[in-house]
Each structure stands twice: as C-alpha cells, then as structure tokens.
Amino acid sequence: MKYDFSSMTQRRNTNSVKWDLGAEHELPMWVADMDFVTAPAIVKAVQKKAESGLWGYTLLPDAWSESIISWWKNRHQLTIEKDWLMFAAGIVPAVSSAVRALTAVGEKVLLQSPVYNAFYHCICDNGRIALESQLVYENGEYRIDFDDLEKKLADPLTTVMILCNPHNPIGKIWDRETLLHINELCRKHHVLVFADEIHCDLTDPGYDYVPFASVSEECKQNSVTFLAPTKTFNIAGLKTSAVFAADEVIRQKVSRALELEGVSDVNAFAVDATIAAFTEGGEWLDELRVYLAENKKVTSDFLQKELPMLHLVPSHATYLLWIDCGAVTDDAAALCAFLREKTGLFLNEGNAYGTGGETFVRMNIACQRERLLDGLGRLKDGITACLAEKTNKE
Fold this sequence. Notes:
The protein is of the alpha/beta class. The protein has helices spanning 17-20, 40-52, 62-76, 91-102, 118-124, 146-153, 176-188, 217-221, 230-233, 248-260, 268-280, 282-306, 332-343, 369-393; strands spanning 27-28, 85-88, 108-111, 129-132, 136-138, 141-143, 158-164, 192-196, 223-227, 241-244, 311-312, 320-324, 345-346, 348-349, 360-364.
C-alpha cells in the first residue's frame, strides 16, 4: 500500500472525545471517528492555511461546490447543481435546523430503528415526535417492514422521514429498488425525505451506495440530502458538511434556517480541507476501504472461532460493526458496562439506537490491526467472564 494505516497513532491527551473521556487503561472502540491520520493532501491544505496566519471571515469559493459536484458525479453518478448546495457546520446541526424549518412542533419524524441515536435528539429536543418503524431482524440480517412503514407514513402528523443511507449502525447499503419503494410511499403520503448519506464513501471494495436523489426525479425533488467528508476522511473536528435540495422552495426554507441559526457560517480550514479531500483524496480512500475490509474479515474470523455465540451482522458499508449479543445478554447497556469495567473495552450499547438495539453492541474497527486485535482479545475476555458470572449465579 502507498499509504500507511498500520502505524500506531497516539491520540490520548489530545482533547480527543474518543480517547480522553476514558481512563488510561481503556481501549475506546465506540464513537465514529478513525485512529488513522487523514489523507496527506488534506494535511497539506490545512498546513498551508495555518501558515498563512489569515483566518478571518471566509466566503465559500466556487472550488468548494465544484469539488463536491465532481466527486458525486464521478464516484456516484449523481448530478448536483451548484445552486442546490449549502454549507453547514456539521450534519447533526444541519438536520436539526432542517427539522425546525420543515416541520411544526408536535409533528412526527419517522426513523427506521435501530438507527443513529443523534437523530432522536434532533427531533425530540425540537418539540417534534420521533416515530419508529422498526427494521425487521430475521435470520441474522435486516429488512424493511414496508407494511409498518406505510402505516407510520400514513399518520397525518408524519411529515418527514429520516433515511440513513448507508444505515448506521447496521451498515446496510439500501439498493435502488428499496429506495424507490420508500419514495413511492413517502410521495403517496406527502412525507419529505431527509437522506443522511455521511457514510456513503465508506463502502467495501466492489460495493457502491446509491444516492437517494439519483433514483428518480421524484426522489430528487422530494428530498434534502446531507453529505460530508468528515467520516470518510476522518476530519469530524473541522465541522464541515454540505446540504443539497433540488426543490427551490424546500431549499430556500433550509437555507434560511441554516443562516438564521449560524449553521452556515464558513470555517476557513474546513473549506480548504473539503476541497483537498474531494479533489485529491480518492486514492487514499480506496486504500483505506481495502484496509477496513480486511479489518472486518479479521473480526468476522475471530468471532466465528473464539466467540461463536455472538453474531456479526453482515454489512458492506461503514467501519461500525453491529454485533448481536442476544445469546449472552438481554441488556446491551449492562453488557457494555461490564466489558468496560472488566477489560477496559469501550463499546457503544445498542440500547442507545432505539427499539431493536437492546441486545446489540456497536464496535468501531477503524483502527490499526494491532489495536483491533487488542480489542478483540478484550472482547473475548469480557464475554468469557460474563458467561462465567452468569453460570455462577445460576
């Protein structure tokens, strides 16, 4: 490989949310950022900006929108027009602004649980109601219950559906037919789609995601899409994302909300980093995807051999693994607390992701192989201790 993903990095005592919220002996494999240094082109762009010493209020240059347009056209066969694009200081604040702009207090926003937990805050903290259409977990995999989905969409108070594509935490890439069916139901019941596609570039080699807006003209007109380089290139701390809407009325409402709430304020470093990522980061990303896929394979093989009572849900996107621990516990929160106390392994509890996550844990494998093997060893020790404790109580 041209790029080095194996050399250990030191993130402790750097004000890292991932590393500095825990004790010295703990191994964090939870929050969704990577332990790799970002692409060299981004480092160079940020260094150049830092060396200039000029970091005042910043306009959004044409190069920013051009880099996004080119990336999605070449990588994902989606044509985005410049006028559709809006800068936002992160996807979560952008989604919150869009919820406030396009729904009313007391209305319902539909989620497909288990799903990214911050969406619940974007909805409920703004006085709206989070309405779950739970994904069906069957034979170790997930599918949509379209009957339940339509029932929830048909509720007169449901005005927006948040689509996580690819889906976090299950890592599923929604195919074109599924997205088309979702749109048909949303159009039928006058529900607008918010497509969160932040993990879209983190697919396994040989697999591609389908942008919701690319499926049909109706999908494009009936949606707001949220994009970012942050997960892909490990620059979440720069607080940068893009929002686009093809429909002019929808776009004006979202744009106005972003401006009023200060979410559209441009970060000078974020702009340069985004341009570098989408114009020069492709080769680095392709090698990263190979490394992550190898980490998935290492994890899968380890679980099958050492912890066969756990089930790794098959996935082809994200670096977040969704592990079924139902044979060990009926309370993932308690299990995660036990693992952390006994072994120092810090995972996400499935309970946080809404209905259906109660027996699952989420594990972040975007790290060096050495660190991954350490984490898997701690997982084995913790599960073994948990089962031994259960046996003793019985």
